[in-house]
Write a structure and sequence with these properties.
CATH topology of the largest domain: Rossmann fold
Strand order of the largest sheet: 3-2-1-4-5-6-9
Order of helices and strands: EHEHEHEHEHEHEEHEEHEHHHH
Strand content: 15-25%
CATH class of the largest domain: Alpha Beta
Length: about 270
């Protein structure tokens, strides 16, 4: 029997990983969470109270674990990985991001600890489209920028499904899996698809940088400038879809329209 520890089990993806593991028949799952009540974990899950950001809580959580799902938490990732190696954990599956970008330190720490590893590298989450929720609830015009910037966003459920598969199967050691949705879309196209899901015709308005920062700061605060500059880079270097989700899970990845229909309530007028 393989004991799997899922860290970050109160978070969106970590909680989904637990559900995916159980659905796949895993019968020895431990979940690390700072708030077991909020996590609302299913019966049969071994709950460990703790947090990657508090390394003192990790020895008890790591005890007897064979495979670790490592949620991304940069401040203590090096210590968390070192402690995993010391605890005798056999393998780490980490959630990071595109190589060379913000979450690269997760992969570096995992590799430095010496344990067999698999890196999961999702791009933008479809859920980031909720950045437009306020505007779409208020009317039919979306003020944004870099409307032709293209990427292939992924549903968080698909990230969790891949994570569960890799945690349960052998043969993924030393691999890095870039994870995207099934289609490359511009920001303008995403807004159109949200409108289709809502049965409305939304109009996308492309703002110059400074006006876009001012508008997006209403939802993102001080991070708006950084975000807009990232979109400008994306406009120059578009991201394309890759088939890893379908190849690893044996089912098609979620399309953006499917995601928007499932989450239409996030954009509905009150």
């Amino acid at each position: 029997m393989t004991k799997i520890l899922v860290t970050g089990a109160t978070g969106n993806i970590g909680r989904m990983v637990v559900d995916e593991l159980l659905a796949a028949g895993a019968d020895d799952v431990r979940a690390l969470t700072v708030d077991p009540v909020r996590a609302a974990l299913p019966d049969g899950v071994d709950v460990a109270r703790g947090f990657l950001g508090r390394p003192s809580t990790l020895p008890a959580a790591y005890a007897g674990v064979d495979v670790l799902y490592l949620a991304p938490h940069l401040p203590t990732v090096t210590e968390a990985c070192r402690m995993a190696a010391e605890a005798g954990i056999g393998r780490i599956v980490d959630l990071a991001g595109p190589k060379g970008e913000h979450w690269q330190a997760v992969e570096d720490a995992v590799e430095a600890c010496g344990l067999p590893f698999t890196h999961l590298e999702p791009g933008e989450f479809m859920a980031n489209a909720t950045l437009w929720s306020r505007q779409i609830r208020a009317g039919d015009v979306v003020l944004d920028t870099c409307g032709d910037a293209v990427n292939a966003p992924i549903a968080q459920e698909d990230v969790a499904a891949v994570a569960a598969r890799v945690l349960l199967e052998d043969g993924h050691e030393g691999r890095s899996y870039e994870l995207t949705g099934p289609e490359a879309l511009s920001r303008r196209q995403k807004v159109t698809l949200i409108g289709e899901a809502l049965g409305r015709e939304l109009r996308y308005v492309d703002l110059p940088r400074d006006e876009a920062v001012e508008e997006l700061a209403k939802d993102m605060g001080e991070h708006a400038g950084w975000y807009v500059d990232g979109l400008a880079m994306l406009a120059q270097y578009p991201h394309q879809a890759v088939p890893a989700v379908a190849e690893l899970t044996g089912r098609p990845a979620t399309t953006f329209l499917e995601w928007a229909r499932r989450n239409a309530d996030l954009f509905q007028r009150s």
